[in-house]
Specification:
The structure is a single chain. By secondary structure, the chain is of the alpha+beta class. It has three domains: 76 residues, Uridine Diphospho-n-acetylenolpyruvylglucosamine Reductase, domain 2, CATH 3.30.43; 125 residues, Uridine Diphospho-n-acetylenolpyruvylglucosamine Reductase, domain 3, CATH 3.30.465; 65 residues, UDP-N-acetylenolpyruvoylglucosamine reductase, C-terminal domain (Uridine Diphospho-n-acetylenolpyruvylglucosamine Reductase, domain 1, Alpha-Beta Complex). 28% of the residues lie in helices and 27% in strands. It is built from eight helices and 19 strands. The strands form six sheets. A five-stranded mixed sheet has the order 1-2-3-6-4, with helices on one face. The two termini are 17 Å apart. Bound molecules: flavin-adenine dinucleotide (FAD). The site of flavin-adenine dinucleotide has 32 residues, from β4, α3, β10 and β14. Flavin-adenine dinucleotide binds next to β4, α3, β10 and β14. It is found in: Cytoplasm. It comes from Apilactobacillus bombintestini.
Length: 300
């Protein structure tokens, strides 16, 4: 029987044996031993100390919009940063905490008449996830607008990394290589016309809504863009749209998305991913690498 237990440790809310499907955009995933919701950098540092003392592995999540968490769940401590979500604007700099939504950051920039970040108006992740992934859309990339980020190293030290040190690449940043935790990021934008900025954001969000299955749970584009191809076109041309395993289905609206149409499990998602990869490889000899991060334990 599932028992949900909440404890408060040093003012930090911690849930035990918590289903991560409550947080993932796909609405799938097993349980975490513990989930903590820090509200400050100090609390994140305290959690790192506690995990070290108890020899517990740590996993950091933002908005869980780019994740498949396997059905066996996550061992140890999951830190969800969404309660650290402050956004500040000073001159042409916008500084957002790791748990702030990228969407809210673009809204704050627009309100202050700052341009450059409109491309992210519909990206449903957090700032931490956006730095980690170098999230991008419609020709824009996080790398192009980030001035610097504050991170916590695995040694529990706060460090400032400038754009160069973040070593951005296609869906890559140095955070992936060094297991840093992003605490906040500062975006350097340019003065612009509020109405024009809003119009561009509206335009991109309309485009998104017309092409993407936003009415169903998903994790966005499942596969990276292979060199010289488009993942969605390869999947479409292989006749895979509508392919289904359990409750997970290759979207009929956008071939690059896998949607949860009927109580899918993470295992259903993984079956669909494997089938798509195998079929596209057989047909085109192109390997589709996942953009979505697959983490956690297999179900026993
Ligand atoms: C409908 C839909 C549309 C999408 N459209 C786009 C798009 O246009 N462009 C695009 O790039 N992506 C898109 N995505 C994917 C996703 O929103 C981005 O990858 C986003 O940047 C992930 O942020 P997150 O907070 O959800 O990260 P999560 O899914 O929570 O985590 C992703 C990875 O980042 C790590 N991480 C998260 N926060 C931190 C942190 N603070 N410090 C260190 N590591 C961290 C996690 O450990 C994990 O490995 C879309 C997703 C959906 C569901």
């Amino acid at each position: 029987m599932f028992i949900r237990k909440m404890i408060i440790m040093k003012n930090i809310k911690i849930l035990k044996n918590e289903p991560l499907s409550n947080y993932t955009f796909t609405k799938t995933g097993g349980n975490a031993d513990m989930v903590a919701f820090p509200t400050s950098v100090k609390q994140v540092q305290e959690l790192l100390n506690m995990a070290k003392e108890k020899n517990m592995p740590i996993t950091v999540l933002g908005n869980a919009s780019n994740l498949i968490i396997k059905d066996g769940g996550i061992t140890g401590l999951v830190i969800i940063l969404t309660e650290m979500n402050n956004i500040e604007v000073e001159d042409n700099l916008v500084t957002a905490q790791a748990g702030a939504r990228y969407i809210d950051t673009t809204i704050a920039a627009q309100k202050h008449g700052l341009t450059g970040i409109e491309f992210a108006a519909g990206i449903p992740g957090s700032i931490g996830g956006a730095i980690f992934m170098n999230a991008g859309a419609y020709g824009g990339e996080t790398a192009n607008v980030v001035d610097s980020a504050m991170v916590l190293t695995p040694e529990n030290e706060i460090k400032k990394l400038d754009n160069k040190e973040l070593d951005f690449g296609y869906r890559h940043s140095s955070v992936q290589d060094y297991d840093d935790i992003v605490l906040s990021a500062t975006f350097k934008l340019k003065p612009g016309d509020r109405d024009k900025i809003q119009a561009e954001m509206d335009h991109l969000n309309e485009l998104r809504a017309s092409k993407q299955p936003l009415d169903l749970p998903s994790c966005g584009s499942v596969f990276k863009r292979p060199k010289g191809y488009f993942a969605g076109k390869l999947i479409h041309d292989a006749g895979l749209q509508g392919y289904q395993s359990g409750g997970a289905q290759v979207s009929k609206k956008h071939a690059g998305f896998i949607v949860n149409i009927d109580h899918a499990t993470a295992t259903d998602y993984l079956h669909v991913i494997k089938h798509v990869q195998d079929t596209v490889y057989k047909k085109n000899q192109v390997h589709l690498e996942t953009e979505v991060r697959i983490i956690g334990n297999d179900k026993k």
